[in-house]
Structure formats: C-alpha cells, structure tokens
Amino acid sequence: MSVVLVVNSGSSSLKYQLIEMAQERTLASGLVERIGEASGNVVHRHGEEKTERAVEIVDHDVAFEAMLENFAQHGPSLEEAPPVAVGHRVVQGGRRFFEPTIVDDAVERDIEELIPLAPLHNGANLAGVRAARRVFRSIPHVTVFDTAFHTTMPDSASYYALDHDVATKYRVRKYGAHGTSHKFVSEAAAAHLGRPYDQLRTVVLHIGNGASACAVDGGRSVETSMGMTPLEGLVMGTRTGDIDPAVLFHLHRKAGYSVDQLDELLNRKSGLLGLTGTNDVRDVTERALAGDQRAALGLDVYVHRMRHYLGAYLVALAGADAIAWCGGVGENSVEVRRRVLEGMEWLGVELDEARNAERVEGIHEISTDASRVRVLVVPTDEELEIARQTLQATGIAVG
Ligand code: AMP
C-alpha cells in the first residue's frame, strides 16, 4: 500500500492530505491556520471524525509538529500508514521546472531564486518544503509546480509585447497558474468521454475565488488566462483580472496610490468584491436575481469576461470537443454556467437546462445529446493530482 502525504504550505496556513494511492482514497486531511499569529487553529479529519483546537503556531516547523501530533492522536498513525513520499505544491516554477521534481538542496535554492516572481507564494511554499524535509528525512520529497502544465504554451501566447531586454532581464512573461487543476480536469474529462487524452481539445474553466481558463490541446496547455502572476485574466473574487495598465499610472498620479496600495487594491479589493461588495457568487447571484443593480452589474461583468476568454480559446483550439467546469463556482453555480454558455448553439455548444440544474456528485455532463461540444462539470482534486505526480516522479509503485 503506497501512501503519499500532500502538503500545501501557504504564508499563514498549512494544508495536508494523506492519500492511499492504490484506491486513491483520502485517509486523513487537515489544516493548520494563522501561522505566526498569537492564536492558531488546527483542524484534522480522519474518516468521519473531525477535531479542532486552538494553539499558537509560531512558524512552519511548529505547524508540522501540530500535523504530526494530529496523526499520532487522531489517526491514522504514520507507523501504520507510513508515507512513501511527500508531494509539495509550489506556485511558481518559472522556466526552470517543467515537471514534478525530486527535491534536493539545489532544487530548494532554485525555488528560492524564483521568489521575486511569486512573492506571496514561493517563500511560503519553500518554508513548508524545508520544514517537511526536517521531519521526513528518509523519504523523497517532490515539488509539483502550478506553472509546469503551462510550459507547453507557444511563445506567441506567453510573450508580452514589452521591451524585449526588460522582459528578458526581469523574466516577465506569462507563466499561468492552476496548472495542476487544469491538467487533472482535462484528463478526467477525456477519461469520462472515453476519448484519448492526446486527441481531445478542451477548454477548462476553473472558476473559484481565484479563476482561470485554459485551452488544452491534446493534453498540452496552449493558452491560459492568468499571467506572470495570478492577477491577469478573468474577473475573480477579489482580483480585477485584465485591466488597462494605464489605470495604475492614473491612480498613482491623480490619487497618490503607492505601489503597495495598488497591489492591495487590484488583488484584494477588486473583482466581484469591488464591484458588488461581496466576493461570494451565491450572494451576488441572489441579489442580482432580486433586482439589486450593483450585483446585476457585477455578475454581468464577471460573465462577460468569461465569455470573452471562452470565445478566444475556442478559436485557439480551432473548435473544442469539450468545455469542462470546475472550482467552487464552476462546480456549483447553475446560473453562471447558464449565462456564460447562453446563445452559443451556433458554435456547437448546447446546454441542457435540466441537466445543468441537477445536483450530481462527481463528473457529469450538462450539454444536450445533440451538442457538438460536450459540456462537463468535473470536480477538481489538486491534492490527488499532486499525489499522482509525486508517485510518478519517484518511480515508486502505486500498490
Ligand atoms: P473555491 O475557491 O474553488 O473554493 O471557490 C469558492 C467560491 O465558490 C466561493 O467564493 C463561492 O463564491 C463559490 N461557491 C461555492 N458554492 C457555490 C454555489 N452553490 N453557488 C455559487 N457559487 C458557489
């Protein structure tokens, strides 16, 4: 029985999942929150049992100790279900990491060197890798990069029309994100449709609080909406997505915004939150349907941008075989899916209203039987994808 521990280490949180790979079954999962604050929160789930406690977590090393304590006290015991490898989520792999990579000191240094490209993420990811390597000394650690799936994008899709020397010196280009999810979902869509992955053209719409679209041609990402950072592209919960960069000059010159304030404004105070006052699509939809004008406008802008990208990616793929929805909104919002796919029959996209409105566990199809483009809802599972890639990278057998 091969068990993989998946670790997602953020700046103030540590999420983990212990997965048995033969049956791809989650044995336990947990979350250590508010690392570095006076009062941290620790949650652990094992089977039906959920435990929670408040305790101070000063840093990532202490967060790992809390995780180990959870396994020891609430199970499963890591002696009985010992992990054969640890898989780590890392956001930015730059042009250095094209695939999952077994960690050694040199890999750690390279991840560190990429921190300027993802200041909010890579440092925290690395802190998790280092802490985990101190705890699990005798098993391989594998880093799985959010950007790796997009390294197949052609230059035409990944270059910005910026001064070439500046772009090269500062490594400014489109790297994309959510790659682990786009890969998992497009692969699961192909399996569900009984089509070879290397022949299927899919547009994946990963729509959660963060959101991105990806055009996947035969298992290769050829276009994605997030850019050098996860700020570009679709309208998100709190992020603007695409915006004229001159807006930043304007706000700086006219309103005195500093770089940090602009960063905060665009990343945390904009998107649906900025437009409507809330970033929860359930609330926005309810309010819009009840006649609230700001919510209606917010939803319109949100949907408009998604249709813009979907149209572009159908062209990039010269027509798609499938559209796959995932993420909290993509998997749950009947209304957003309906509005985005409205009036696309001429493109071969025909939504079945009844199927769209049905609540179904797992992958399900929401297009009509006659629809040329199959439309699917595919619950994403980034942890499982990280575990699969981790095992593959180590060469350890699944069973
Ligand atoms: P994620 O980041 O993928 O976890 O997605 C979180 C977002 O999913 C939340 O902010 C909600 O806006 C959205 N969401 C969750 N459930 C629903 C639902 N039933 N209908 C619409 N949106 C939902």
- The overall pLDDT average reads 97
Count of discrete alpha- or pi-helical segments spanning 4 or more residues: 15
From N to C, what is the helix and strand string?
Answer: EEEEEHEEHHEHHHEEEHHHHHEHHHEEH
Rounded to the nearest angstrom, the distance between the terminal CA atoms is: 5 Å
Helix content: 25-40%
CATH architectural arrangement of the largest domain: 2-Layer Sandwich
CATH superfamily of the largest domain: ATPase, nucleotide binding domain
Main pleated-sheet profile: 8 strands, mixed
Overall shape: it is globular
| Quantity of strands, as a count | 14
CATH class of the largest domain: Alpha Beta
User: Can you tell me the residue ranges where pLDDT is under 50 for at least 5 consecutive residues?
Assistant: none
The fraction of residues in strands falls at 15-25%
Here the CATH topology of the largest domain equals Nucleotidyltransferase, domain 5
**Structural class, from secondary structure content?**
alpha/beta
In short:
With about 400 residues, the chain is an alpha/beta fold. The chain has helices at about 60-75, 105-115, 120-135, 155-160, 165-170, 180-195, 245-255, 260-270, 270-275, 280-290, 295-315, 325-330, 335-340, 355, 380-395, and strands spanning about 5-10, 15-20, 25-35, 40-45, 50-55, 85-90, 100, 140-145, 200-205, 210-215, 220-225, 320-325, 365, 375. It has two domains: about 5-145, ATPase, nucleotide binding domain (Nucleotidyltransferase, domain 5); about 195-380, ATPase, nucleotide binding domain (Nucleotidyltransferase, domain 5, 2-Layer Sandwich).
